Amino acid sequence: MKKARDLHLLLKTIRRSSTTTTPKMDPSDRYSFSPILRWNPEVENYFIKAYGADHFSIISKALTRPSSYSCVRVNTLKSTSDAVIEKLLEIIKEKGFDGDCHGKEGSGPNENVGSPLEETLKNGPIVKCQIPGLEYVLFVKGTGPHMIDYGYVPGAPPKEVIVGRKCAEAVLRGAQVFVPGVMACSAHVEKGDTVAVSAAIEQRNPNGGWAFDPYYFERNGFYIGQGTATMSRAGLFRASEGIAVDMDNRVFRLPSFYDVLEGEIFLQNLPSIVTAHALDPQKGERILDMCAAPGGKTTAIAILMKDEGELVALDRSHNKVQDIQKLAAEMSLTCITTYKLDVLKAIRQRNEADDINTNQSSNSLRFHEEKASSSTAEGFNLDKTCEDNVSNAIENGGAYVSKADIRKAKRRMRNGPGRNQCVGGRVENSKGFYPDSFDRVLLDAPCSALGLRPRLFAGVETIDSLKKHATYQRRMFDQAVKLVRPGGVIVYSTCTINPGENEALVRYALDTYKFLSLASQNPRIGGPGLVGSFESPNGRTEEWLRPGEEEFVQRFDPSSSLDTIGFFIAKFSVGSKDV
């Protein structure tokens, strides 16, 4: 009922937009893509003090647009860059990607005229990265922003589909408009009609919060393209899934590689690939990826290790752990071990006696289960075989196995392993890991994600919520410090432009753990970190980097010539913990 009422209100606003009471305006202003990113006022003031007003304005504009290229990582264990380029060029040719997107190309911060990246992209639609060590990374050139003729006629606006912000951001990255993302639709839209697609962005409400309220003028500059309706208006609101609008004329156009060359390539942001290199994983090491989902950095690390060693990947979500497993299997990587675990509970205290008993009991039970299974297949009595195997296991030095465990083993043998015990479907829980048990630890921390792009709204985050992110990250970093061995390495990364989650974390780490020191990174293509501090109105001071430390970290500015997402990487060397 609530959804129906909301749709009714949205449709009223569309009808209102076409009435004669609407003031005259230049259609090029309305039917365009020129969004202004809205921030919480306190957060905006904080960022202005960190970056300066002019620089932050440029960053905000860059965040509203996707990068001018897609970054593809080649699985060098299964293919080569040259082979993948050949295949992708053929796919692009088949899909008819011509780069002109039926419109004139406008100006935007992601054109990067004269930058090294722009010069590289001039060499063709798909080129190898020229950064030493990253030759297996491919750049696929996109186009945009484009000026689209939506067919506006005074008094007769084009038929229109309004989508939610999340849907609009996905469309700007190359997705289609799916039914769940549609919020409203003009009257009399039929299957096959050409429709303009606009985004409904949160607006301030009288209570001081944010809410969707897509009035006519509030969609000015939020038109993301043109497409063909795949169903009528009535069918659109009856359906629960499927493509609603086939986007054939986009403001930004990037080739889609969904379900393309699975196992051979992985679509990944350039700073994320650099993060795996900063960790510098070596063959035979034991490495921990603390917040591993969806598995992009995990698989990148495994490939750099030549799939030799042990790479432990954690996430607290069952489904996300399965996603990591599927990606690892798709890329034929065997060194990755996944666990479901909250990283705040990652430390396991040593208790040698319990370890011996637990391992013996587990091994004993597994021994008699396997033997009993084999005996059953040969026609022996299941119950007697199971009990005999347990007796033999105990006689041979194994720990005592209870009758309850024996009954469970019998049931498993009769009924089969079950869905969660099958290959590819099982998610192991972990009780944690002993201190100093990993050579290298990657903490790609959950964050405010204020560096991701395209982003059409940023007003949700407040100063308090940013502080909560930072507090959570420090607790996770504390776990990382305990898990890494002396002489090891910790790499910390985020996808946010917030210095409170980046430079302030580095300051906390260096001041709290005197045995940590910043280490150089290779390759180094990001910019320097922020030096100084921020004093809030309540007198609280947030310390960032000190002079000389800024060149050890990598800060990726979305408005820079690299045209990446906003990202941050810090690498720490771990000295003797006895200091």
Automatic annotation (TrEMBL):
- Species of origin: Populus tomentosa (Chinese white poplar)
Respond yes or no to whether keyword Methyltransferase is given for this record: yes
Q: Where is the SAM-dependent MTase RsmB/NOP-type domain?
A: 198-575
Quote the catalytic residue positions: 495
Matches recorded under SMART domains? PUA
Keyword Transcription listed? The answer is no
The alphabetized UniProt keywords are: Methyltransferase, RNA-binding, S-adenosyl-L-methionine, Transferase
Q: Which residues bind S-adenosyl-L-methionine?
A: 291-297, 315, 342, 444
> What PROSITE patterns does the database record attribute to this sequence?
NOL1_NOP2_SUN, PUA, SAM_MT_RSMB_NOP
What name goes with this protein?
SAM-dependent MTase RsmB/NOP-type domain-containing protein
GO BP annotations of the record are: RNA methylation
**Looking at the Swiss-Prot or TrEMBL record, what is one Pfam family this protein matches?**
Methyltr_RsmB-F
